[in-house]
Fold this protein.
Amino acid sequence: MFRARALVILLVAACLIVLSAPAFAAGEQTRLHVCNKGEIPVAVAIARTEGSLFEAQYWVISGVTVAPQNCAVVYDQTGQGAYREYPGSLSGARYPVILSPGEALLGFGLKDTAGRFVSLRATSVPDFGKVVTRASRTLCVDPVRTPAFHTTDSKLFDPAQCAGLQLPGVSRAVPLTTAYHFSWPEISSTLVDNDYYLNITAKPATGEIDVTGGEGVDEDHPTPGSTPEEKAREKALQDALMQGVKDAVRRAADEEAKRKEAADPFNQAAANRAVAEARANSIDYAAEHTRNIGRVRELSQFTPDWLRTTEPLLYVRGTVSRVEPPSGPRQPARLYFKESPDNAFIACIPTPQIFNLQQYVGKHLEVRGRVSQSNCGGKVADVRIVNPAMILDLAKGTPSDEAVLPGMTAASSGNATRAMAAIPIATRIRVSLTSDIDLQHAANGATFQGQLAAPIALPDGVIPQGAAVVLVHDAYSRLGISSVAADGKVWRISGKVDASGQADVSANVLRAGTTLVFVVAGTDAPVVTGR
């Protein structure tokens, strides 16, 4: 059984015949150049099989002559053109190309001194690796001229049949024995066209032919990368590329396995539980308790200073005296308190439809929110309640986030008696930096340390020079003041640096020892250290 695209090539004494055939492989192709280095003409005969993909149906036979000191392409997978220009030729000289697909059998023949057409025995096998091997097959050809013809089936002629064959255009056929079998790669591993060359020299006296070869168009034009060193580098590169592909495939498989594992409902539940536990374990409940208690305000002790507190939220406690429904569309409902009969402080509810308002009448509540100046009806201040969870019924017990847990020390509320007064609004505070501050690379919310460069006089005492100061960098001010601490107390304040001071506050880096002046804009009474 023959392969679908097998090819037989014999070198015989004949005239040039060019036979086109479709390329065997797509993309990169292989060509075989034969150069006659001797003084005697040697010719080529080709017999290729054509038919179905899996079994050849018949053979197509033709021939070509290679003159002395000339070359011919006897095998070409590209299927382009019948002639090719000599490499480096300035005159445009071309040599004949025999187009062939797939595989090949290659033989050599010539007329001896007695005029007989004989086959030549190759003295060696070209070093093309597995591409070429020795092969002895018989083909019937015309010793003078072999025009293209084909057999009727997949069998070649028996040697004894050659003399009696009646072929179109063939006067008398003779048997020839092939020398080599070529099996070319269908696609180049180097992603470029592959060229091979054979140099032949016939020796009629001994019936032999010397054959050498290599990669390239001819010995003067070797293929780049054909030396052992270049081949080794190319192999190393290909191995690295293949390893990269294998690694990528393995990583993709690992990621897919992880994705499937993560998609499992039980694994998802376990992961969510782990996240929740980690979050719960990271909470400093003592600090949370202290912070929340510090926000508590009894409405009976209301003062306009609540508007200047540094706390973002206040927890205001009072007893609801009445509820005022909305006066019209998009109007809030209002809660009034017994502890503020002059309505200096009220709570307003902009979305009353989600509240059961009448349930609050007569109850002692804690309402949570940002205290603002008369935004919704309070004569002095009010708080907006947008969620029922921001209203807590104190008759049901202490809110859970204000409860004292085992191991905690009860914190003082925001209504506790203070040892000293708050730092007054508009107070100018001189601060000396205790370390360099890189404002150009500081993260939003980053804090820095300083100390009072001068004492702060209060109505009931003095905060001494050297008291610790915390400064903060945010998106709205390059540097602000956050707190002052001394003698176990912390004054929470807010204020911006005064650009009229002597320091260059626009510098990207403020050096340790620099003195800055801050103007207080928000203040609160001191609390114990740690709140």
About this structure: Residues 29 and 169 are 33 Å apart (CA to CA). The two ends are 95 Å apart (CA to CA). The mean pLDDT is 78. DSSP finds three helices and 36 strands in the chain.
